[in-house]
Amino acid sequence: QKEVEQNSGPLSVPEGAIASLNCTYSDRGSQSFFWYRQYSGKSPELIMSIYSNGDKEDGRFTAQLNKASQYVSLLIRDSQPSDSATYLCAVRRSSASKIIFGSGTRLSIRP
Amino acid sequence: DAGVIQSPRHEVTEMGQEVTLRCKPISGHNSLFWYRQTMMRGLELLIYFNNNVPIDDSGMPEDRFSAKMPNASFSTLKIQPSEPRDSAVYFCASSLRQGEGTEAFFGQGTRLTVV
Questions:
Q1: Residue ranges of the alpha helices (H) in B16-87?
Q2: What is the C-alpha R_g of chain A?
Q3: CA distances (Å), A42 to each of B12, B74, B87, B107, in order?
Q4: Dihedrals φ, ψ of B15, to 5°?
Q5: Residue A39 near chain B (CB below 8 Å)
Q6: What is the pLDDT of residues B27-65, one digit of tens each?
Q7: How far apart are the first and last CA of chain B?
Q8: CA-to-CA distance for A90 and A15, rounded, in angstroms?
Q9: Cβ distance of A98 and B33 shorter than 8 Å
């Protein structure tokens, strides 16, 4: 079992709709959860961090965490063509530990 | 701050040659990570340091790979000898250890091609 799992996609969403990206992790002791966006040929860029169960909103982005189910999700509202990218989920057990990434979900926003 | 700085941005080398990748983390950050990204394997953690000390190098694929962090502002990843299967994008990232745990910030990456 992979430590962090994501559906590779591609996930195709019409412009203006909500894109929903999901991630599961295997280490129940994980404390920190991150979503990164990576455009082709570029480096990963942090979008959201979440540490507590529930929802965290930042503009058009909402991260959701359910530690009991070992599940993290990212919602993108009012999807734009510029949101087309690969989205990476990352997990960290503690501030002193390694950060493990999922394989990413490729998102395509169609006009 | 200039962010995480990696050099070179691109490296093309012949099989068997030594390759050295360099990284300058964000000032004040005390965790540093080296990752390798390929289409087949995604983003793999090779090694990470806390306060310049290597903590986990279990992701280093072979003895041909080595990493050092002589001080808080500089790290190297060396491959000797290089092989075509080492071709990938290598990222360095740094983070600040504080509180619950903090996110990593990435450099621009080094695209390595071994021919």
A1: none
A2: 13
A3: 19, 22, 17, 10
A4: -50, 135
A5: no
A6: 989 999 999 999 999 999 999 999 999 999 999 988 999
A7: 36
A8: 26
A9: yes
